[in-house]
Amino acid sequence: MFILGVITLAAGLAMVLAHNIWSGGALVVVVTLVGWVTLSKGLSFLFLSPEVEAEFFLRKLHYQQFFYMYAAISLVLGFYLTYGGFRSISK
To answer: Is residue 35 a contact partner of residue 29, using CB atoms and an 8 Å limit?
Structure first.
């Protein structure tokens, strides 16, 4: 969990430091939100015990019952970001 926390924290911190823009369209805000969520998830992996994290994902978010819904959200978000990344014009 520690290694996963360090990698996730580094990825989230890189996204937040490189792209912390809250205006300019939906795609820009979604990328910023993904960065902040990744940063907070990395911090939770580092500072919370595995039991607390398991309790959060299994009991509070009902991850096992809603697995396909969470997977669909991630898939749609991935398609949206991919489409927006290839569609946008570089400055």
So the answer is: no
Q: Do 53 and 45 meet the contact criterion of CB atoms below 8 Å apart?
A: yes
pLDDT over 70 at 73, yes or no: yes
| Side-chain-side CA neighbours of residue 3 (13 Å) | 0
Beta carbons within 8 Å of 77's beta carbon, 6+ residues apart = 30, 34
Please give the Cα distance from 30 to 26 (Å, whole number): 6
Burial (CB < 10 A; 0-12, 13-18, 19+), residue 39, is: buried
pTM: 0.82
